[in-house]
Amino acid sequence: MTGGSLQMARAAADGAATEAAVRTRLLHAADAQPADLLDADSYLFATPENLGSMAGLMKDFFDTHE
């Protein structure tokens, strides 16, 4: 809602992209598919916390894409 998680994710992606061999992609949880995870060498998940828990959309992603 405030954009803090997106700002943090963009900063991390920008930092990683300074390395020549690193390709970065920012995906919203609603747009990501299992193939996106399988094709990646590493991940950074950014989500707002709501009452000590991750955002519902991110939790849904993990629950439905086992």
Walk me through this protein's architecture:
Helices cover about 40% and strands about 5% of the residues. With about 70 residues, the chain is mainly α. The protein has a two-stranded antiparallel ribbon with strand order 1-2. Strand 1 and strand 2 (about 55) form a beta hairpin. The model has no long low-confidence stretch (mean pLDDT about 85).
Rg, nearest Å: 13 Å
Mean pLDDT: 84
Low-confidence runs (pLDDT<50, min 5 residues)? none
Compute the number of strand runs: 2
- So what's the overall shape? flat
What is the percent of helical residues?
A: 40-55%
Strand adjacency order, main sheet: 1-2
In N-to-C order, the SSE pattern is: HHEEH
Largest sheet: 2 strands, antiparallel
In total, the number of domains comes to 1
Q: State the distance separating the first and last CA atoms.
A: 27 Å
Helices and strands: which structural class?
mainly alpha
Q: DSSP strand (E) fraction?
A: 5-15%
Quick tags:
flat; 66 residues; 6% strand; two-stranded antiparallel sheet; single chain; mainly alpha; 3 helices
Produce the secondary structure layout.
Layout: H1 4-16, H2 34-39, E1 49-50, E2 53-54, H3 56-64
Provide a compact summary of the structure.
This protein is mainly alpha-helical.
